[in-house]
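Re: the 121-residue chain
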Amino acid sequence: QLQLVESGGGLVQSGGSLRLSCAASGFILNYYGTGWFRQAPGKEREGVLCISSSGGVRNYSDSAKGRFTISRDNAKNTVYLQMNSLKPEDTAVYYCAASATSRCTYDMDYWGKGTLVTVSS
């Protein structure tokens, strides 16, 4: 069945880097818009970055602009979020999600269960 599984979360010091992976099964991720979202404790979920089926990238906000990069490996059916220069405010549960429209929106059809990223100071 259609499934998204995140991995790569963990504890990292401020200024460090981390790469998150979103592996898809049951469907070809290349046909979907796939984005990364995050939810910090006590805050609403916010979009981070998204890549459309055509390869276009959308920045949902400026909070991670210039520090985070989204990419897709079609051979592995996996989308990545490379996070550099991490800050304590980046601490959150990170989710990947896919849209059957092939575009990057907030109205995603499939969601992973999330992976926790904790940035210490």
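The chain has a mean pLDDT of 94.
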